[in-house]
Amino acid sequence: MRVGGLMCVTVRFESGTRIEPWDPTERTITVPAGLSPLLTVTAVRAVLAELCISQPPFEALCFCGETIETLPRVPEQRSTQVVSNAP
Ligand SMILES: [Zn+2]
C-alpha cells in the first residue's frame, strides 16, 4: 500500500551479524531472524519511535496509521513482487 507516494514500512527478518535496522530507501525495518514475536514488536517499535512515529503501547504502527505486520511470513514465493513507481 502506498500513501502520498510513500511506501509503507515493512519488516524483514534477517540472520547475520551485521544488520541495518532501518533502510530509508526501502522503508524497511530489519530485525534478527529468530526473535520472539514480542521482541520483534519491541524492536520494530523502537525503530519507529526513532523515526518520530508515535507508537501505541502494544503494537507497531506505520506512519500511515496501519498496523505493521511483525510476524514472519511463511515463505510463499512473494519475493518476486515488483513495486512499480509508475503513477
Ligand atoms: Zn503505512
Automatic annotation (TrEMBL):
This is Uncharacterized protein. The lineage of its organism: Bacteria, Bacillati, Actinomycetota, Actinomycetes, Kitasatosporales.
